[in-house]
Amino acid sequence: MSEASSPAAQFARDGFVYIPQLLSPAEMDELSANLERVVREVVPTLSKAEAMFEDYSDPTSLKQIAHLDAHDPYFADLMRNPRIVAIAEELLQDRVVAQNIGYFRKPPGRGKPTPAHQDGYYFCLLPNEALTIWIAFDDVDEENGALYYVAGSHLKGVQPHGASHVLGFSQGLTGDKSSELGQEVLCRVRRGDCLIHHSLTIHAAGGNMSSRERRAIGLVFYASRAKVDPELKRQYKESLSRQQQQLGVA
Ligand SMILES: O=C(O)CCC(=O)C(=O)O
User: Fold this and answer.
1) Which of 31, 124, 181, 219 is the most buried (most CB within 10 A)?
2) What is the Å distance from ligand 1's center to 215 Cα?
C-alpha cells in the first residue's frame, strides 16, 4: 500500500478512514453473543440515561447504551484489544487513553437520524485529538442509517453546536454549514467493517425506516496529549442535564 493511501494518510487528509472486515465473522459472532447477553441481563438494571429507548414503554425499541465497558467486563476487555489499540495509536500518532464504548442502534422502522455533530464538542479536549472506532454489526446503507462524514472538516476546528433535543446526541451543529466545511461522504458498510473518525470530523446518520436492523458500537480513544478543559466540560454537562430533565430521563 502506498503512503498516500495508507489508513493513517487517509485519516490525516479526510478525518475518517474505512477498514473493511476489521473483525472476522467468528469475532463478530462472539461480539454479538456478548451484546445480546448485555441487552438481556444488564440493560434492565440500567438507568434511563444509560440505556436509551425510542419508547421507554417498549423494550424492543432500545436505541443506545452509554458506557458499555463500564457495565460489562467483556466490553472493558475489548477496549484493551491490542489490535484495536494499535490502530488508534497509529492514527493519532500518540499513546492513547481508552474512554468508553457506546452502543448505537436504530430499531427497524423507527430509528431516528443522528444529528450532525463533532464528537470533540462533547469531549471538550485541548488539543481536540481523539477518535472513535465505529464497528458495524449489520450491513448498513442509506436505508437503515448509514453514517455520513464531511471530509476534511476535522481541519476546520470546533464548530458551533447547540441543544439538539435528540436523546443520546444532546448537541448538534447549528446552521447548515457542512457544505462549506467539506464534501459529504456516505459510508455504506458490511457487518464486521469499521469506520474510524477524528473527534473534529463532522458526521451524521440517517434514520432507519427499513425492516432491517442497524446496530453498531463506537470505541472512543483520546490521544495522550489531549486534556479535558474543565470549563468547556462544565458547560457541556449543564446543557446535557437540562435536556435530560426536559426529556424525562434524568
Ligand atoms: O451510530 C450513529 O448513528 C452515530 C455514531 C456516532 O455519532 C459516533 O460514534 O460518534
Assistant:
1) 219
2) 10
- State percent of the chain over pLDDT 70: 96
pLDDT tens string 219-233: 999 999 999 999 888
Pure H helices in the chain:
7-14, 25-37, 68-71, 73-78, 82-92, 119-123, 178-181, 230-246
Let me know: does 46 contact 71? Beta carbons within 8 Å. yes
Q: Is the CB of 216 under 6 A from ligand 1?
A: yes
Contact 143, 209 (CB under 8 A): yes
pLDDT grade for 69, boundaries at 50, 70 and 90: very high
SS3 content of the chain, % helix, strand, coil (to 5): 35, 30, 35
**Model pLDDT for residues 124-169, shown as the tens digit of each residue:** 999 999 999 999 999 999 999 999 999 999 999 999 888 888 888 8
Question: In ligand 1, which atom is closest to the CA atom of 119?
Answer: 10
C-alpha dist (Å) from residue 230 to 117, 124, 160, 227: 20, 8, 18, 9
Give the range of the structural domain holding residue 198, as residue numbers without chain letter. 3-246
For residue 225, give the DSSP letter: T
- Whichever domain contains 156, its CATH number is 2.60.120.620
Q: Is the omega angle on the peptide bond into residue 127 within 30 degrees of 0, that is, cis? A: yes
Q: Is 124 in the pocket of ligand 1 (CB under 6 A)?
A: no
CA distance 172 to 50: 20
